[in-house]
């Protein structure tokens, strides 16, 4: 699986959009970009995933660059409950289904 | 939808005992389930991949005789930590996926403390 790089930590003001970047410059053509988050002492929560088109669901939007070497997760109106560690993972859905978790980005929403 | 239930949420037991953790997919049939372990201040580490009706595939460095995995049905996988010792104390998390393009969904984890 492609290695991903994320900032260690970020702060965002409550009510503002939180933009979390992720670099995956070695991603291969059949690897999806998955985003999960983990709130303290809980299991990871699935947020969104995509291959090359931008995706949006009720939780977030995922913007993938045209060359697919990076992506940005957008939480449109951050709340205090969005404080968590966010993981960006590139994984091959066709054969290798394993998710390799890195260190993620610790997002803190500031009141 | 896509709810994964894990039981128990936490367990404390004496060194040398065996502990069984259950992982259930409540509203879907999971072709594959995964078991992860997370030590304090660290990220999740995959322990093994479990396919219904077949033997689990363990990651390098994970002892298959110590961490017994059974995936007897499409909705249940169990992890048994045999002869647990204090160094096995950790947060154990399972996940399940339907298949195809569907993502993995995680349980809420089991915090295991061995005294």
Topology:
The complex is a heterodimer of chains A (111) and B (115).
Chain A: E1 9-13, E2 18-23, E3 31-38, E4 45-50, E5 55-56, E6 61-64, E7 70-75, E8 84-92, E9 105-110
Parallel strand pairs in A: 1-9
Antiparallel strand pairs in A: 2-7, 3-4, 3-8, 5-6, 6-7, 8-9
Chain B: E1 4-7, E2 10-13, E3 19-25, E4 32-38, E5 45-51, E6 57-58, E7 67-73, E8 76-81, E9 90-97, E10 105-106, E11 110-114
Question: Portion of residues in helices of chain B?
Answer: under 10%
N- to C-terminal distance of chain B: 37 Å
Overall pLDDT confidence of chain B = 92
Give the oligomeric state.
heterodimer
Number of strands of chain A: 9
Estimated share of beta-strand residues of chain A? over 45%
Strand order of the largest sheet of chain A: 1-9-8-3-4
Based on helices, strands and strand pairing, what is the structural class of chain B? Answer: mainly beta
Shape of chain B: globular
Please write the string of helix (H) and strand (E) elements of chain B. Answer: EEEEEEEEEEE
Q: Which properties best describe this structure?
A:
heterodimer; A: 111 residues; mainly beta; five-stranded mixed beta sheet; four-stranded antiparallel beta sheet; 9 strands; 47% strand; globular; B: 115 residues; seven-stranded mixed beta sheet; 11 strands; 51% strand
Structural features, described:
The complex is a heterodimer of chains A (111) and B (115). Chain A is mainly β and 111 residues long. Chain A is 0% helix and 47% strand. Chain B has 115 residues and is mainly beta. In chain B, the strands form two sheets. In chain B, strands 2, 4, 5, 6, 9, 10 and 11 form a seven-stranded mixed beta sheet that branches. Chain B is globular, with a radius of gyration of 13 Å. Chain B starts with a strand and ends with a strand. Chain A binds chain B through residues 32, 34, 36, 38, 41-46, 49, 87, 93, 97-104, and chain B through 2, 4, 6, 32, 34, 36, 43-46, 49, 91, 93, 95, 97, 100-101, 103-109, 111.
């Amino acid at each position: 699986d492609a290695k991903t790089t994320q900032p260690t930590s970020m702060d965002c003001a409550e009510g503002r959009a939180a933009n979390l970047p992720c670099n995956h410059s070695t991603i291969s053509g059949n690897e999806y970009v998955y985003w999960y988050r983990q709130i303290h002492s809980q299991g990871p929560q699935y947020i969104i995933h995509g291959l090359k088109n931008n995706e949006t669901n009720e939780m977030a939007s995922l913007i993938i660059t045209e060359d697919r070497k990076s992506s940005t997760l957008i939480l449109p109106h951050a709340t205090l409950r969005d404080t968590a560690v966010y993981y960006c993972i590139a994984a091959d859905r066709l054969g290798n289904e394993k998710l390799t978790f890195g260190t993620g980005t610790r997002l803190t929403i500031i009141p | 939808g896509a709810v994964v239930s894990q039981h128990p949420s936490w367990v404390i037991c004496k060194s040398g005992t065996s502990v069984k953790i259950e992982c259930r997919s409540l509203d879907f049939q999971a072709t594959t389930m995964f078991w992860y372990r997370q030590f304090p201040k660290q990220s999740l580490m995959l322990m093994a991949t479990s396919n219904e009706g077949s033997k689990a595939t363990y990651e390098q460095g994970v002892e298959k005789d110590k961490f017994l995995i059974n995936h007897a049905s499409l909705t249940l996988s169990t992890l048994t930590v045999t002869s647990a010792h204090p160094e096995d104390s950790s947060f154990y998390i399972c996940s399940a996926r339907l298949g195809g393009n569907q993502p993995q969904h995680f349980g809420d984890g089991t915090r295991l403390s061995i005294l």
